[in-house]
Predict the 3D structure of the following.
Amino acid sequence: MIFIPLKSSIPAIVIELKVNGTPQEAIDQIINKNYVDKVKDYKEILLVGISYDSDSTHSEYKRHQVKIKEYREED
């Protein structure tokens, strides 16, 4: 998912979801597949990796982890 703000002063946000993975794997996929190219004109870009455990035996809610990283060209 990509959230594109109406004003360039607000950061664009790129989100990747992973099942049974890690938030870092999700962020790596955003970078490796060049998803940030769609928002490259924005001054600030936030990458959000969300992973969740598909095993729902823990509770009625899925356990999840999140990592948020500011994107820089050298990433």
